């Protein structure tokens, strides 16, 4: 493939001006922009003026720091907090997806979901107990676990309640992170649970594990033993450093591909049993009445989903030009196989470029070149995973799941762009 742009390259491959994804690999995309619009994206340089020494080059820089922080000029990149006034300690904070690039969520911006605040736990006092249908109940101190062989999972965690404003009658107008940002992607490292459970000696009749956290709400959930033996870990590290207090310090359960609530933070107990405990978080919550009168329960898995992060609501397009549409896709079932983008509200679609590496149960960054001519457009993204599961349109999801849904909203999101370049959330 030639690295230089030809006129053919600028022929749209789908409605609304979507261009072929291979263009992202070509030099000259910005030059094409200039030719198409008569304007250049960068200013011409004046070497003597532009290279004049700025003040910070005329004195020594700041001293070293023992622990780094983001630039003070980026201080507006924050988690939005949704606190519950009547139930202090119960609420969420959202990852600002619209302000981040790549696939990793910085630890300080990982979303939070707490049912009763963040416990202050001294690592020397914390204990993890494995008991129930085992040959020998065991107690693990933090220092014990730190000596075990470890493994890492680079995975997303998504709250089952993420994006649930999508069930509302009217499209909510919020930045994409404050709508879809109860999801984050980190490298989690720790001890494979199978190693610890094998050591305790599981009764062959056991089928469930009840996991409990050390927060004041004593959060517990029932989990299928087979999945825990397959790839779950007791994580002690997040993005290379010890887990942040709000994400479960000193240890949490990590269950790749399972909804957020199963990843019990501040993990203190694993009870091996042969039936679920029917805790609040699997009966009163996380159970949904369907149109046929039956209820969904133990819906642990996260289905494929995607969202366009740029352009997205509260961002602005600066006139007709060539743009990179970008976003995130993920699936709890495995790898993302493809992401399609539409600029005409779903009438036609073109395949986006997926950025390497494409890992199972992990954020996948997609990119799509777009020649926007300044007329109104409706952008959508649609993810397909390696099992063949395709992210549904909103009306399809509602038909299947009814209007009593609250969890697992994974419908295609639509952003409308008006002539002025303003972006808003629409149902289309
Ligand atoms: N002990 C405990 N574990 C917990 C929770 C909690 O409140 N207490 N919240 C759960 C829910 S609903 C989610 S979505 C995830 C959120 O993890 P995070 O706060 O690290 O993003 O933790 C889960 N584990
Ligand atoms: Mo959650």
Textual characterization of the structure:
The protein has 428 residues and is mainly beta. Among the domains are: 170 residues, Sulfite Oxidase, Chain A, domain 2, CATH 3.90.420.10; 122 residues, Immunoglobulin-like. Helix content is 11%, strand content 29%. The protein is built from seven helices and 24 strands. A five-stranded mixed sheet has the order 5-4-13-8-9. β23 and β24 form a beta hairpin. The two termini are 37 Å apart. 38% of the residues are buried. The mean pLDDT is 93. The site of the ligand Nc1nc2c(c(=O)[nH]1)N[C@H]1C(S)=C(S)[C@@H](COP(=O)(O)O)O[C@H]1N2 has 19 residues, from β3.
Which helices and strands occur, and which strands form pairs?
Layout: H1 29-37, H2 47-50, E1 80-83, E2 91-94, E3 112-114, E4 127-132, E5 138-141, H3 142-146, E6 151-158, H4 177-180, E7 183-192, H5 193-200, E8 208-213, E9 220-224, H6 225-231, E10 233-238, E11 241-242, E12 252-254, E13 267-273, E14 288-289, E15 295-296, E16 305-310, E17 321-330, E18 336-342, E19 350-351, E20 353-354, E21 364-372, E22 377-385, H7 394-401, E23 414-417, E24 423-426
Parallel strand pairs: 4-13
Antiparallel strand pairs: 1-2, 2-3, 4-5, 6-7, 7-10, 8-9, 8-13, 10-11, 10-12, 14-15, 16-17, 17-21, 18-19, 18-22, 20-21, 22-23, 23-24
Helix pairs in contact: 5-6
The structure holds ligand MTE and molybdenum atom.
Molybdenum atom (MO) binds at residues 113, 159-161, 260-261.
């Amino acid at each position: 493939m030639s690295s230089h742009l030809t006129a053919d390259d600028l022929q749209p491959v789908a409605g609304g001006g979507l261009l072929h994804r291979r263009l992202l690999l070509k030099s000259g995309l910005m030059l094409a922009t200039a030719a198409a619009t008569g304007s250049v994206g960068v200013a011409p340089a004046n070497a003597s003026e532009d290279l004049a020494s700025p003040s910070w080059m005329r004195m020594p820089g700041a001293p070293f720091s023992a622990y780094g922080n983001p630039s003070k000029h980026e201080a507006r990149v924050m988690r939005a907090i949704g606190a519950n006034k009547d139930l202090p300690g119960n609420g969420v904070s959202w990852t600002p997806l619209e302000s981040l690039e790549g696939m990793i969520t910085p630890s300080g911006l990982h979303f939070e979901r707490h049912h009763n605040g963040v416990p202050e736990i001294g690592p020397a006092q914390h204990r993890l107990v494995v008991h129930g249908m085992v040959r020998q109940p065991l107690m693990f101190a933090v220092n014990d676990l730190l000596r075990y062989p470890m493994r890492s999972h680079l995975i997303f965690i998504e709250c089952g309640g993420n994006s649930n404003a999508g069930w509302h009658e009217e499209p909510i107008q919020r930045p994409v992170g404050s709508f879809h940002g109860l999801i984050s992607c980190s490298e989690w490292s720790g001890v494979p649970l199978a190693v610890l459970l094998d050591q305790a000696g599981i009764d062959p009749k056991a089928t469930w594990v009840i996991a409990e956290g050390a927060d004041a709400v004593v959060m517990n959930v029932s989990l299928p033993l087979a999945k825990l033996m397959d790839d779950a870990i007791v994580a002690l590290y997040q993005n290379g450093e010890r887990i942040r207090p709000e994400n479960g310090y000193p240890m949490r359960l990590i269950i790749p591909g399972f909804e957020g609530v199963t990843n019990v933070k501040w993990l203190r107990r694993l009870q091996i049993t042969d039936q679920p405990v029917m805790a609040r978080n699997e009966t009163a919550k996380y159970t949904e009445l369907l149109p046929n009168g039956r209820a969904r329960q133990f819906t642990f898995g996260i289905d494929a989903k995607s969202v366009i992060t740029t352009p997205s609501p509260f961002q602005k397009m600066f006139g007709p030009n060539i743009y990179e549409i970008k976003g995130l896709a993920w699936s709890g079932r495995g790898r993302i196989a493809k992401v399609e983008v539409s600029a005409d509200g779903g009438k036609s679609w073109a395949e986006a470029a997926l950025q390497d590496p494409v890992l199972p149960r992990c954020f996948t960054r997609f990119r799509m070149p777009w020649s926007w001519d300044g007329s109104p457009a409706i952008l959508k993204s649609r993810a397909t995973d390696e099992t063949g599961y395709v992210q549904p349109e909103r009306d399809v999801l509602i038909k299947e799941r009814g209007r009593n849904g609250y969890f697992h909203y994974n419908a295609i999101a639509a952003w409308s762009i008006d002539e002025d370049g303003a972006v808003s959330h629409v149902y289309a």
